[in-house]
Amino acid sequence: MSERAFNFSAGPATLPESVLRQAQQDIWDLFGTGIGILEHSHRGKAFDRITAETEADCRKVGNIPDDYAVTWVQGGATTQCYFVPANFLPADRTADYFQTGKWANDSIKEVPLYGTCHICGSSKETNYDHIPVGDEVKYSANPVYVHFTANNTIMGTEFQAEPTPPKGAFLVCDSSSNMFSKPIDVKKYGLIYAGAQKNLGPSGIVLVIAKKSLIEEPVRELPQMMQYRNHANKEGRYNTPNTFGVYLMGLVFKWILERGGLNAVREMNADKAAVLYDFLDDQDFFLPHAKLDSRSMMNVTFKCPTPELDKLFIEQAAKKGLDGLKGHRSIGGMRASIYNAFPKKGCEALVSFMKAFAQEHAKAVSA
């Protein structure tokens, strides 16, 4: 069997090895039924158990109260860009959005189809190198909700704490790339959604956590599949769900609980990120993108002194088993995605390679 590479991909991303081993077994035979997880009916007893355990373990991980629904939908987090305003924003009202990068902009561009969008904070002018705070944040007079993207994979920035919405507004969060990477107070939110392929499972499924009172009735007539209440009321089985995605999320939730929950996971992630950031702060060859107070624990972004060296770095790193480091085309450079399941030894291996690469090419740059 070939040796596994260190997968720095921004997503789909690294999964826990123990989860992958269990999935190998359960693809062949789930719960001793003689039928694999990919073959079980979403209405059968085996999947009833998967559904119940996945929801229960998700509630344990996130300390999610009973007045919040836990469900899942298909279509990726991109569908949530229009699900949110479609369900919550009347045509004559305003919603406030933080503009912190590509994924935030994807949400922003859908809002005018349903109501008015107000940009309450933006870091666009500095190429999204920080999270707007303080005087940079100006809410509209009476927003229905405030939407923010908790972690920005492309730029490597992350909200260090959730924003406080104006009185009467509720908080909506796209937490796709840092969900359950640290403790979260669900009661501060009206709705949280997260594409699974970063920290929770495979691509093709989205976890949705919503205050039940908010999803009882959408603000307009909508197709049945676009109504949050239908998915919540049917345990994520309003239509045939991504059964393997639900199953794998359930295994990941168990993996988190086995490690001691979100406080332990936060310590683990902070320890890993420090390996990279401590090195970046102690050298002058690589150029970090995110400002100090906005750095992401999930995505570390940096560049070499020239685009040519960026390309060479990525090529040589891949040969060393350090895969998926190419940065997004909008900023170039490198991006090391180190989600929950990514091992610390991978960060250490990357730093070792960075030191050698810098030493080899520093003189050529300064010449």
How does this model look, in words?
The protein is of the alpha/beta class. The protein has 2 domains: 17-258, Aspartate Aminotransferase, domain 2, CATH 3.40.640.10; 260-366, Alpha-Beta Complex (Aspartate Aminotransferase, domain 1), CATH 3.90.1150. The protein is 35% helix and 16% strand. The chain contains 9 helices and 14 strands. The protein has helices spanning 17-28, 45-62, 76-88, 102-108, 228-233, 243-258, 262-281, 307-319, 344-366, and strands spanning 6-7, 68-73, 94-99, 116-122, 145-149, 151-152, 157-158, 170-174, 191-195, 206-211, 287-288, 299-303, 322-323, 334-337. The strands form 4 sheets. Strands 2-10-9-8-5-3-4 form a 7-stranded mixed β-sheet, sandwiched between helices. Strand 6 (151-152) and strand 7 form a beta hairpin. Helix 1 (17-28) packs across helix 6 (243-258), helix 3 packs parallel to helix 4 and helix 7 runs parallel beside helix 9 (344-366). The longest helix is centred in the C-terminal third of the chain and has 23 residues, at 344-366. It starts with 5 loop residues before the first strand and ends with a helix.
